[in-house]
Design brief:
ArgE/DapE_CS, alpha+beta, hydrolase, 2 domains, 32% helix, 382 residues, metal ion binding, Alpha-Beta Plaits, metal-binding
Length: 382
């Protein structure tokens, strides 16, 4: 059991409601900064050393909070716990689509599952450790970021810099559904943009003078789809697509976006090479340009990750629940830290369902035991 008094799930839900009802779409840095203001003020009030990193490129700020220097920690590296405050939901979702509400074991709200409940659990754990003056084996660093839902373009360097100093990284992204599992491996994630330049012509009178960008794109889509290897953990998905102007005009332009997922860095490199080889002049007389690549490296399971997992599983058992592990196709900021060789355990947040969907919810009665598990990890890892 953690030394820190966490409170009841009802208590936690009451405070979490304020976070959920403060809407924070990635596209509104001011809204995200407003929630960061609240977190910063409360952490400073209990003695945290807080650094606020100004947002850039249209994104919100990032917040780093540390436990004060303590001679008892010696030269131990800190435990890093990292979450994000941005959500995929636009302003007005709370009023029109997913009002905060509790129905039996489920608590609903925009971003409550992905991942305000987890980020709140991390914040709450650090705040209460400091407020209650609980001794921890290692220093603690809390990182709250503002742009994870779009790939962490302005926070990746900060995440990696903090991870490089850490002995372990904890990511309170949502627990698995079904199974309520934490995450010991994630696929790498990448994107491409494919653009085809052709030659327009009248589709009836001058067909032979045209070069259809749409025909080239159609062929490339089937080639990209053929790279799918489900047993090997590789998937591709082409969407959206565009091209042409009118039925009677040979299409001069066409294009698409591609999402791909891979289970290892080697497979990612092979897929990138295969897709990039499709660029250049084409048999139809068109030309293809392709941009993009792997933007989140795979989080590959390792003995060091499994050691942290076994510690978390033992703590969870003390809280009265089983904590299985899983490999997940979606990416998180844990992909970055695991790829650096830092032991990273992900999916430590609350279970539920509906990430990015209109039925997004958590199983709110798990808030206390899940937060207690995270808190005890923060207290005891070294």
């Amino acid at each position: 059991m953690p030394q820190t008094r966490i409170g009841t799930s009802q208590d936690l839900l009451q405070e979490l409601r304020g976070w959920v009802e403060h809407e924070t779409p990635t596209t509104d840095p001011a809204a995200i900064n407003g929630l960061l203001d609240k977190a910063e003020a409360e952490l400073r009030a209990v003695g945290a050393e807080v650094e606020r990193i100004p947002g850039r490129d249209g994104f919100g700020d990032h917040l780093v909070a540390r436990t004060p220097a303590n001679a008892a920690h010696g030269n131990r590296k800190p435990v890093l716990v990292a979450g994000h405050l941005d959500t995929v939901w636009d302003h007005g979702t709370l009023a029109k689509t997913i009002p905060f509400r509790v129905e039996g074991e489920k608590a609903y709200g925009p971003g409550i599952y992905d991942m305000k409940s987890g980020s709140f659990a991390a914040f709450h754990s650090l705040r209460e450790i400091l407020r209650q003056k609980v001794a921890t084996r290692s220093p603690i660093t809390l990182l709250l970021t503002s742009d994870e839902e779009v790939g962490s373009p302005s926070s990746r360097a900060l995440i990696e810099a903090e991870a490089a100093k850490a002995c372990a990284v904890l990511i309170p992204e949502p627990a698995g559904n079904p199974g309520k599992a934490c995450v010991t491996a994630r696929k790498g994630v990448g994107r491409f943009v494919v653009r085809v330049q052709g030659q327009s012509a009248h589709a009836g009178g001058n067909w032979e003078e045209g070069s259809s960008a749409v025909v080239t794109l159609a062929r490339l889509i089937t080639q990209i789809h053929a790279l799918v290897d489900l047993p090997g953990g590789t998937t591709t998905n082409v969407a959206p697509i565009w091209g042409g102007t009118r039925p009677n005009v040979i299409a001069a332009e066409a294009g698409c976006e591609v999402d791909f997922r891979v289970s290892s860095i080697a497979k990612g490199a092979a897929l990138v090479d295969a897709v990039m080889a499709m660029a250049g002049p084409q048999p139809e007389g068109t030309n293809v340009t392709i941009t993009g690549g792997l933007n989140r490296p795979p989080m590959e399971e390792s003995p060091a990750i499994l050691a942290v997992y076994e510690r978390a599983r033992a703590i969870a058992a003390g809280q009265g629940y089983d904590l299985p592990k899983q490999h997940r196709g979606g990416g998180s900021d844990g992909n970055f830290t695991a790829a650096m060789g830092i032991p990273t355990l992900d999916g430590l947040g609350c279970s539920g369902a509906g990430a990015h969907a209109e039925f997004e919810h958590i199983l709110w009665e798990e808030l206390a035991p899940r937060t207690a598990t995270l808190c005890e990890l923060l207290e005891t890892l070294e």
